[in-house]
Input
Amino acid sequence: MSDVEKSRLVAWNREMRAVHARLREILGLVRTSLEAPELPTRELLLYCHGFCVALSRHHVAEDVALFPELSARHPELGDTIRKLQQDHSLIAHLIAELEHAVATADSSEQLALHVEGIGAIMESHFRYEERQLLEVLETLEWDQPIARVLGEF
Output
C-alpha cells in the first residue's frame, strides 16, 4: 500500500476530528460573543446563526450520507447509528429553541443558557461518536466529497 493510499485510508478519521474541532471553535466564538457586552447585537446574532447552520449541516450530512454508508458496510453499528441520529434530533430541537430565542431578542443570559445546553449535548455526542466511529473511519475507503459526508461550513 502506497503512502497516498494509506493517507486516504485515515482521512475520514482525521476529517471527522477536524470538523468537530471547527465546530468547537465556532461554539467558543459564540460563547465569547455572549460575554462581550460591547458586541453589537447584529454580530451576536450572526455568530449564533452561523453556529446553528454549521452544526445542522454537519448532522444532516452525516444522516444523509455517512450513516447510510456505514450502516451498509457495518450493520453491527446499527444501535450506535440510531443513538447518534437520536442525538441529532435532540440537538436540532435545541438549535430551533436557540434560533427562536435569538429571533425574539432574548437577553444574553438566556441565549447563554441555550448555547450551554447545546454545547453540553454536542460535546457528549462528539465524544461518543469519536469513540464509536473513528476506528471504523480509519479504514473507510470511500471516494466522496468531504462536504457531502461531514457537512459544509
User: Anything to note?
Assistant: The chain has five helices and no strands. The CA atoms of residues 12 and 137 lie 5 Å apart. The helical segments are 3-34, 41-73, 78-103, 108-138, 146-150. Residues 41-73 form the longest helix (33 residues).
